[in-house]
Design goal:
single chain; alpha+beta; eight-stranded mixed sheet; 8 strands; 18% strand; disordered N terminus
């Protein structure tokens, strides 16, 4: 470096100042949206709905799932910063608590701690609707706007921080893990980018158009929640089936009736499961735009929805086969018992005829 440059810039303060200005210009700011999806036993159809929406209109998926209804909007405070909590519902039994706060520097702010506190408060609100704490889905979406340039530049600068936020991980991640996490992304326009992971997503959009994507994440988390609940119910049904089939064979007629009733329930469950999952998937792909269909496919892959469906179908196959065989066995058992009853009745009838004949011969003497 020449002495003329040192004379003009005599200390390292210039470099530090330049780097600080550059860091501020490159700082990522936006909002963090976290949500919890839970299933309630309450009847949400009787719940008061807020008429005025403050959210941007969401994508319309007619005849697929009910449109989101807002139950209430409330303000809160997380670590001395403002937060907004929106309680939404898919009538009749699904509650979503969506919480939002603004951040101004992705690299410098304690976003994991803020996110954790936000979810704790959201879970407290969700518990007001008597949702099962064992079955809810949480997700975080970091929405980045008000920037210039290709978002991939920010992935290169803040990749480690972004990957840690997506995985909610406090320990330093391996470089290959960071690359694998950031690789799961989708670009549509020149200056937008969406990175999808299991626990969270980053959406870069210079126009700040996030609401449609957030609802798509909520729909997919709803599918995952329903799959988990149905899978647990089928595990319980399998255990009940084993207990039923291990019982002593008395009252076979009543058990046959019970088995046939359960078999009808299984067939209905299979039909409902197929119709719900396929309707959502096909309708999003058909009536959603090209980007929506691709994003849905990426989220579904990350959530392993196909594996969940396959696992559920296999359990339904097992249950259907077992109950079909049980129903046939009980039917055979009942028919066999009926045959013995008829044969026994025929013998009793014959004995009666012999008694009557004997009495007539005796009286005739």
């Amino acid at each position: 470096m020449s002495t003329a440059f040192l004379d003009t810039h005599p200390t390292a303060a210039y470099y530090d100042g330049f780097m600080e200005i550059w860091r501020q210009e490159m700082a990522l700011k936006g909002r963090c949206v976290t949500f919890l999806v839970g299933q309630t036993g309450l009847n949400l159809e009787t719940t008061a709905i807020v008429e005025s929406r403050v959210l941007k209109s969401s994508p319309n998926y007619p005849d697929v799932i009910p449109k989101q209804a807002i139950i209430r909007i409330q303000k809160g405070e997380i670590r001395d910063r403002d937060a907004t909590f929106v309680v939404k519902a898919y009538v009749p039994d699904t509650v979503i608590v969506e919480a939002t706060f603004e951040f101004h520097d992705l690299a410098a702010e304690p976003l994991l701690e803020l996110n954790r506190d936000l979810l704790l408060e959201s879970r407290r609100i969700l518990n007001e609707f008597q949702c099962d704490p064992e079955f809810d889905e949480e997700y975080s979406v970091y929405c980045i706007s008000d920037y210039q340039g290709d978002p991939e530049m920010f992935l290169a600068l803040h990749g480690e921080k972004i990957a840690a936020l997506l995985k909610k991980e406090r320990i330093p991640l391996d470089e290959e893990e960071i690359k694998a996490t950031l690789r799961s992304n989708l670009k549509y326009g020149k200056d937008d980018l969406t990175v999808v992971d299991w626990d969270g997503a980053f959406i870069f959009d210079p126009h700040g158009d996030f609401d449609a994507n957030i609802e798509l994440f909520e729909i997919t988390n709803l599918q995952l929640l329903k799959s988990r609940i149905l899978d647990e119910e089928l595990d319980g049904r399998l255990k009940t089936t084993l207990q039923l089939l291990r019982r002593r064979p008395e009252q076979s007629w009543l058990r046959s009736k019970q088995v046939r009733s359960v078999l009808r329930e299984i067939i209905q469950t299979r039909t409902t499961s197929i119709l719900e999952s396929q309707a959502i998937e096909h309708s999003i792909k058909l009536i959603g735009d090209w980007y929506t269909a691709r994003l849905y496919a990426l989220i579904s892959k990350k959530f392993h929805l196909d594996e969940w469906r396959q696992n559920i179908n296999e359990k339904l196959d097992i249950l259907e086969d077992v109950y079909t065989m049980a129903a046939e066995n009980f039917s055979i058992s009942f028919n066999t018992t009926l045959e013995f009853v008829l044969i026994g009745g025929w013998f009793i009838l014959q004995i009666g005829w012999f008694v009557l004949l004997f009495m007539e011969l005796y009286l005739a003497k």
